[in-house]
Amino acid sequence: MSLRPQAPPTVPEATRRAARAAFPKGTPCLRIADALGPVYRDQQFTALFPRRGQPAAAPGRLALATVLQFVENLSDREAADAVRGRIDWKYALGLALTDPGFDHTVLSEFRTRLVGGAELLLLDALLERLKAEGLVKARGRSRTDSTHVLAAVRALNRLERVGETLRAALNELAAVAPDWLRDVAPAAWYERYGRRVENYRLPKTEAARSALAAEIGADGRHLLDAIDAAPDRPELAGLPMGQALRRVWAAQYAEEEGRLRWRATDELPPCAEQVCSPYDPDARYSTKREADWIGYKAQLTETCDPACEGPHLITNVETTPATTPDDNMIAIVHASLERRGLLPGEHLVDKGYTDSRVLVDSKQRYGVTIIGPVADDPSWQARVAGGLTKAAFRVGWERKVVTCPAGKQSISWLPHTWRRGGMVHEARFARRDCTPCPLRPRCTRAKREPRIVSLQAREHFEALWTCVGKVESSFREGRGLRCQNQRSTSPKRFVP
Questions:
Q1: Could you tell me the pTM of the whole model?
Q2: Phi, psi at 446, each rounded to 5°
C-alpha cells in the first residue's frame, strides 16, 4: 500500500443537512467535528507507507475512525458498519451519505502500522488541535495516576510456564527450520509437547511434579545446546521464543555441577526479571494492595485546572511493565509534556510518586511543583501512640543542630554511616541527655545509646515538608485526585 495524500475532508452539504435533522441536539461525533474540524491529515502519516503500491485508504480518516471506535468500545466489524451506516460518523469523517466505507480489516492493518511508537501520532495531532483551540494550555494544573493493563495471556504456574515456553519454542522452530528440528527433537517430544500445557494434565503429587520439572529442564537445555551448536544457522539463536526460553530457564533453573536444578521458591529472581508468558515476554506479574495482575501499567496524565471551565483532557500516556515503580515515571512524563509544550505549573499525584528526589528534580529541571501525599513513616515510633518520629525534631540547618522534643540539642552532625534511603546526615544526641529523659521510651529502643536522627540533604528534606503543606492546603480547598476526596497523611507520618 502506498499513500496518496488528500486534502482535509469537508462535510458534504447533504450529510450536514441529514445529520442536523436527525440529531438537532447534537452527538459527540458532531460536537467533535464542529469544535475541532479535521483533526488528522494524511500528510501526518506519510512515514508509515512505502512510495510504491496500491493506494491506501485515507489514514487521516482511519485515525479518527480508530479513535471513535475505542471511545464507543466497538469491534472492527462494528466500527466499519458505523462508518457505512451512521450519519454522525459520516459527518465526523467528512463522508457522503452514499460512501460505502471500507472493509473492517483495514482498521487492523492501520493499527499494525502504528505499533512501535507511531501510535503517539494520534495523541500528538489531537493535542495540537486542542492547543490551537485554546482547550489545553501549559503551566496550569495536571494530575497523573497509573492503572492496570492486563496482558492477553494465561496466568501460568511455574511448571506450566516452563512446559509452555519449551512448546512455544518448538512450534516456532517447526515453522522456521522444520528439517533441522526433525533431526534434533527426540520422538518423545512430539507426545510430551504436542498439546498445550495445562495444569489439569500435569501430575498432582509433589514428587511427580518435581520429576517432570527436571525432565522439561533437561529437554530445554538439550534444545538450547543444539541451537548453540549450529553455527551454520545463526538465525535460530535470535528467534523470539528461543530467547524467551533462555530467560525462563535462567530464572527457573540453577546449574550445579553441569546439571540443572529446579529452583526453590526463595531462589527465584524478582518478579521484574521473570518472564510470565513466552507469548508476551515483556508482561510482568505485580500486586498493588488487594489487586494482582499480569501485564503492564498505563500512566495517564490529564488536565485538572480549576480555572478552566473546559473538559479534563488527557495530555500524556506512558506504558510500562507492571513492576515499574510510579516514582520512576515522573521524569519521563515531564519530558514528554515538555516536548509537547504542555508542562503544568502544578502536578497532582498520589504518594507513589512523591519521592524527595522527584520533588527536587521536577522543580529544578522543569519548574513543576509536585503536590501529593507523602510516604508513610516506616519507623516503630510512627506505629505507636505518642511515638516521637522525626517530625517531632526541629532541624537548624545553618547551625547544623537538631533539637529534640525535650529541648535538648544534638552534639554532633556527621555524614550518614550507611547512606540508605537518601540519608546523608546523622545528628547524635548526648548520652547524658537521653539516658535520664522521661520521653526516652517513646523516642528510642536502644538499651544504652542515645537517639540518632538521620536526615536527607536539605533541599530534599524541605521539598518534602513543602509538599506536605501544599497538599493539605489543596485538599482543604476541595480539589484533588480521585474525585476530589483524597486527603493527605498526617505530618507525623511524614518521612523526612
A1: 0.82
A2: -65, 140
